[in-house]
Design brief:
Helix content: 25-40%
Number of strands: 9
Order of helices and strands: HHHHHEEHEHEHEEHHEHEE
Radius of gyration: 21 Å
Strand order of the largest sheet: 5-4-3-6-7-9-8
Keywords: Methyltransferase, S-adenosyl-L-methionine, Transferase
GO molecular function: peptide chain release factor N(5)-glutamine methyltransferase activity
Binding site for S-adenosyl-L-methionine: 114-118, 137, 164, 179
Strand content: 15-25%
Pfam family, one: PrmC_N
CATH class of the largest domain: Alpha Beta
Distance between the termini: 66 Å
CATH architecture of the largest domain: 3-Layer(aba) Sandwich
Structural class: alpha/beta
Number of helices: 11
Protein name: Release factor glutamine methyltransferase
Length: 276
């Protein structure tokens, strides 16, 4: 029970959550930094602060992700706004950013397909201001979040509402990167943990988990410059299938890369010849 008069210091150990989550919610509810929690540890909460903190704690106990509760998530060293219109950026996806940056030539062109919060596109544009970065998404609400994140970090990103390649015309890019929906319909993970609160259309293709990946691999050749790279994040058990799809479409140097947990998380290849 959180009540007016409780001190900040006492609450840090009394709240019924993980210590890190306790600290994050206290900082958010009270508008304090981590240092502020220490320097003001003897300060007592007002009735309004106690009520607000109690509401946040109940939301977390119900299972709502911390990132949605506070509206922020760190990714690639940047602070991103998030809400329930977009996936929560995860550290594993930083591998996709690193691979894209390694393959993006000076003044190169990059396309981020299914941008969500804009984490991939904004991170690339922020790191490489020489690059021409385009990000697309089918969701207008997601694009609103992505634009806000680009503006917050001074990242030059062109945003486009498109159902995959439908509004791209004949544009070509040196790198196409995507973290598409790759969870199969009915997968039990969709009803667990944070995934219960994240946008379903960004998680599952409502098929076998490879439907969106097939669309991207099948169409990307028409939008890649000669020797351009296609890089795709996928599920923990999909690497071999994604490599086979890439090889069937004529990609060279097809390979997979492992994330911090040692799981093959990103697969890609170089498209040496443009499709007709």
């Amino acid at each position: 029970m959180i009540t007016a008069g409780d001190t900040i210091g006492a609450l840090q150990s009394a709240l019924p959550l993980d210590p890190l989550e306790n600290r994050i919610l206290l900082c958010h509810a009270l508008g304090l930094s981590r240092v502020g929690l220490v320097t003001q540890s003897d300060r007592a909460l007002t009735a309004e602060e106690a009520a607000q903190l109690a509401t946040l704690v109940e939301r977390r106990k119900f299972g709502e992700p911390i990132a949605y509760i506070v509206g922020r998530r760190e990714f690639y060293g940047l602070d991103f706004e998030v809400n329930d219109s977009v996936l929560i950026p995860r550290p594993d996806t930083e591998l996709l950013v690193e691979l894209a940056l390694e393959r993006l030539p000076q003044q190169g062109r990059l396309l981020d397909m299914g941008t969500g919060s804009g984490a991939i596109a904004v991170s690339v544009a922020h790191t490489r201001p020489d690059a021409a970065v385009t990000a697309l998404d089918y969701s207008g609400a997601a694009l609103d979040v992505a634009r806000a994140n680009a503006n917050a970090h001074g990242a030059a990103v062109r945003f486009l509402r498109s159902d995959w390649f439908s509004n791209l015309d004949a544009e070509t890019f040196d790198v196409i990167a995507s973290n598409p929906p790759y969870i199969a319909s009915g997968d039990e993970h969709l009803s667990r943990g944070d995934l219960r609160f994240e946008p379903n259309m960004a998680l599952t293709d409502r098929a076998d988990g490879l439907a969106a990946l097939r669309i991207i691999i099948g169409g990307a050749g028409r939008h890649l410059a000669p020797n351009g790279w296609l890089l795709l994040e996928h599920g923990y058990d999909q690497a071999a299938q994604v490599r086979a799809l890439l090889e069937a479409q004529g990609y060279a140097d097809v390979q997979s890369w492992r994330d911090l947990a040692g799981i093959e998380r990103v697969s890609g290849g170089r498209f040496a010849t443009r499709n007709a």
